[in-house]
Each structure stands twice: as C-alpha cells, then as structure tokens.
Amino acid sequence: MSREWTLRGATTEYTVGLPEHGGWLELRAWGPHGVSDGPSPLGYVGRPQYMTPGDVAAVEYAPDGVRPFAGPDLVVRPARALSWSFEDAAQEGDSLRVDFADAGSGLRAALHYRLAADSDVVERWVELTNAGDSPLQLVELGSAGFSVPTPHGARLTYLSGQWAQEFTPATTELRRGRFEIGSTLGVTGHQFSPYLAVRDARDTGPTWGVALAWTGSWRIVAERDAAGLTRIRAGRVAVEGPLALAPGATLVTPVAAGAYSAEGVDGLARVWHAYERGLAGDRLTRTRKVIYNSWEATYFDVTAAGQLALAEVAAEIGVETFVVDDGWFVGRGDDTAGLGDWTPDPAKFPDGFDTFVDRVRKLGLEFGLWVEPEMVNPRSALYEAHPDWVYQVDGRPRTTIRNQYLLDLGRPEVEEFVHSTLDGLLRGYDITYLKWDFNRPRTEPGRMGVPLEDPDLDGAHVAALYRILEALRRDHPHVTVEGCAAGGARVDLAMASRVDVVWPSDNTAPIDRLRIQDGYLRAHAPHLMSSWVTDATGLFDTRPRSLAFRFVLASAGVLGIGADIRRWSAAERTEAARWVARYKQVRDVVTQGEVHRIGGPDEERCAVQYTLDGRVVVLAWNPGPLDGLGTVPARPVRLKLRALDPATRYAAAGALYSGAHLMSAGLPVHWTADHDADLIEVTQTSS
Ligand code: DGJ
C-alpha cells in the first residue's frame, strides 16, 4: 500500500488504501476502533488464476475494466473495459475524497466518503464527470461496493414483502454466487427494502449493513467469491436504459450507507436508528403529536358532519392533530376520479372548508390533510387540461393502476404544479400535517415527444420530489409531513431525511401489524414509524386482540388512531384516553430512545425496550396462546431487559428488582385473557 486513509466514527473505523499501481482504492479494514491495526482481513494471499486481481481484491468502486468478471460497479459506453488511475485525495474532518481519471474516455470519478464522529454509518457516493469531448452512457452506475469477510459463508438478512405485508425479515445463506434485491418500479417498493445485513455464517456478533438513500429504482447485490469475501454493490438501476453523460456534465450517485455493529442484526438496527435520528436533525425532538386519521373510519365517504363527529371524540380522547384522509376534494367519491383536482369539495363541506377547519381547530385540535400530488385520474379536470403530463411512450397504450396515472414530475411545469398546489394548500388553510401518498409505480418509461433514450425519468422524478419536500420544509417548517405509498412502498434513508414520519403499511390489524413493525424496526427508527389503533381484524392473522394490545402496539412509534371512534363505547373512550395520556408521558423515550427488541412475534416473549437517559419503557405483547397460568402450573414470561446497571435497583409494575435480575432472570409478565399487552415503565430507585 502506498497510501492509506482512515475515517473514525463513534465506535467504528473504515480504512481504505491505494495500491502501488494506483488503479483502484481498496478496503483495508472496517469494524471497531483499532481494527485497522494488523494485517487486513480483506487481503488475500496467492495468485489470482483465470481472472484478474481486481476480481479478487476488496475494490471500493470498480469500473468494468478493473473487475471484469466478478461484477463491476460502473459500466460506461462506448468505452469498454474502462479503467482509471489515481489523481488526487483529500481528507478533511470526517470526509475523504479520492479522484480517479480515465484519459481515454475523459471520465473522472470522485469517490466520496463521510463518517461522522458521532455515527457508525459511513456514507459513500460518487461524482462522475465527463471531461471528454464525446457523450458517454452509464449502463451500470452503482454508488459503492462494500466488502465483508465471510470465511464460513455469508448470512444475509433482508426485508421483503408486498402490499399489507411489508418489512418481513428473511435470512439466507450465500455460499457462492449472487443474491439480489431491488426495485424497477420507479419507487422504493413494497417488495424489498433497500437494506441488507451481512455477517459470517458462524459468527453471530460482527454484522455489517448496507442501505441506499434513493427513492427510485435500485439494486443491492451481494456476491461471495471462492476465497470467502462477500462484496455488496448498491446503487440506482437504469431501468429506462443507459443514462446520458454529456461532455461537461456531472452525475452524482445517491448515498450508499454502510453500517457496522458488533451486536448482530439487532445491534445494527440501533446503528441505523441513531443514523436516522441524526438525519432528522433538530426536528427529532419536536413533540410527535398524537394524530387521528379518518381513512379506515370513513374511506371516501367524507362529509363535514361525519368528520366533525370523529374530531369531537378524538379531542375527548386526547388526540392532538386531526387528519382528513382521501376523499375531501372535488370529484373524489371513490378511487376512479378526482386525483389532480386539489380543491375541497363544496358538496362535502357546504359551509366552506375554512369553516370546517376552523371548527376542528376550535375543538383544540390541529389539522392535517391527505394528498397524492404526483397522481392524476383520467376522470379529472387536470387530466383534461394536461393529458401530456403523464408518463407515456408515444404510440403505446397507458396503463392505469388504481384507476390513475403517474404524473411526470421531472417536467418543470409538473414540478411547479405540484409544488404550488401543496404550498397553496398550506398557505390557504390552517394545516400543520400533510400526508403525502403515492399509490402506483411507473409503468410507461417515456415522455411524450421525447426520444426514449434521452431522459433520466427516474432521476428527474426523484430529484423533483426531493426539491419539493425540501422547499415545503423550508417554507412551512411547522408542518409535519408523513410519507406514505400505498402503505410502506416509499421508506428509505432519503425519505427519512425529508419527511417526519412514514406510514409502514396499510395493514393495521393487531397481529399482522406486530410482525410488520418488528421487521420495520430492524432497519428504521421509531420516531419515523406512524401507527394507528384501528378496528381492523387482519389479513394474515385474524385473531382479535384487546384495545390495550392495539394501543401498546401503536405506541411503539408515533401514536395515531384510525378506528371509527364514533362507535366506541364510553368505556372504550375512557380506556383510550388513559392510553393516550400514558403515551404522552413516554413518547420522548419511545421516539428518541435506544431500541432493544426482546423476543419477537413468533416467540412467547415479545417486547421492545426503549432507553433514553436512564429512562426505560417496555412495550410487551402476548402474541400467542395463554399458558394457563392460575389453573395449571406455569411460569410467567420473562422479558430479559438490556443495558441496565446490574447494581441499581429498579421499580417496575409495582415490584422492585436489581438491574442484574432484570437482565438475567428478566421482568416477569403474567398474560391472562384480559391482559394481553402492557406498557411498563422501569424506573431507578434510591433503595
Ligand atoms: C393508501 C394509503 O396507504 C392509505 O393509508 C390511504 O391514505 C389510502 N391510500 C387513501 O386512498
């Protein structure tokens, strides 16, 4: 190695080196502080046979000439077998930039790294510039390659699913070859989260994670070679064909983030949570208000009277923000019409929308609204005026999904329309909450009148989305924005830094939701996790659960209520008010605290522990049958808490325990037919 650079985070370090030949950068060590002090665990001995050294080395970012057989990060045309040489490097504070250039094509690549001193996530991205005279095309454009030593095979954990079943954790063992997840939908997708955890198959501790901050089409590929190295490539995928890079142009890839934890997939989750809390910046500590959302109570049957009846009960229960979901605007009697015409329907609000909002506000509630601004129904005034605004391939039919088309947000006039519509709503009405939905992927990869190979539709759409979200945040800083896409199809690190909460799934039924949230928490933080108490019975597991169970479940992130509370009995409303009040007492711990999952939905033990500045809150559920306690001999479920002080005494649910007891024997919970969930505060005592 002629040169080496180390970035140091809170507990992690990441060291890259430049070999004498200067043809690439390679990973030297990635792990706990001090890991770089010794022979590189990524280095190899012996001679590459029947392949090239770049196919075997832990190359950080490889064009196809460097890594011709094992899978490159970058493929450029008309250049073939592109390779480059080192130009320059600059390390400043928590950042590193290393430049490479190819004389033949004129392509220059700046590899960027950032590892903040208080984080264990290394951010990586690449800036590609065409400094030559001829146009270039980017066929593959990864953001980064991450190398992980997996001598006994790679154990991969990922999150997959579909609508109503998002964030289902799965693991697989990769001994050789390739594993791939991704989306070609033009949006993050329900099918896979851009998240992968990798560890050696026999070593349960050290675990590495890769995630991508991108809200369009993407790919994460893991490849394990014969010598035990697993290399993970992450980046955008050019579904619509190669991206043009004109002379003088620069393209910046999305950030691929790499995380390390010595404590397995669970520890890795804590690293991601801390990172996402960092992305929230000073918005993290804003009070996460308890919301009511009308969707499951009224669907499209929105009327001022019906919404006010709901709002009255919501206020009585302690809800702080009332959100009217789909169905409030002209032409929106069902899902066949109306999208695009964002004017309140005078038939539904006969005294005026202003008056309606005012009435909600007078109940002591803040007000929020649902929108799906990137969409249009063919039955709408917007479509009649601008049929050319939707994605389409000239001469081909257009596909409707949920009776709607996707607007081509990459067109400046569409971006302007969406931005000014939302800005207008926020200026026109007393709104503090916006739920931004997205209910269909892109099907037609084209723009009317523009040759198909030209536009980077995905990049243009996503860039416009980010600009609008950033502008709304800048101009309306008091407005909370919820990101939603037919449930959880738009949850990724890029959205985590631009919205305040996300809606993980349309499935709100108790046991189904327990699973979804358990999976979600492996990758994403509770301050982003919107969750409602509803009357839903379940798609995959219909076992009913108590109101307490549903409140404790929705309290695991940002609490909301979505049930038809007009129908709740006085007793149910009283109980609901008690749970809302309890949530308000602990919400800062839940949304800012460190998370330890205890057991899971498939175990007898099923709880999540949140810890913030010595305050501990445990949310626990009985996910399965009872054990007959009281009738036959049985022992209570024991929740083994974590990260307590063994010598300190704690009070929990009316009893005293040492920290050592709570961590080794565990906190006992007795489930009965009337008691299937609990919220338990564990407090330090002086005795
Ligand atoms: C899909 C969302 O995920 C739901 O919460 C709801 O807002 C509907 N769209 C409304 O059409």
UniProtKB/TrEMBL annotation:
GO terms for molecular function: alpha-galactosidase activity. Substrate binds at W163, D325, D326, R402, K435, W436, D437, F438, N439, C484, D506. Residues 631-680 form the Glycosyl hydrolase family 36 C-terminal domain. The keyword Nucleotide-binding does not apply. Its EC number is 3.2.1.22. InterPro entries: Aldolase_TIM, Alpga-gal_N_sf, Alpha-glycosidase_related, GH, Glyco_hydro_36, Glyco_hydro_36_C, Glyco_hydro_36_N, Glyco_hydro_b. It comes from the Bacteria. Belongs to the glycosyl hydrolase. This is Alpha-galactosidase. It comes from Phytohabitans flavus. The lineage of its organism: Bacteria, Bacillati, Actinomycetota, Actinomycetes, Micromonosporales. The gene is galA.
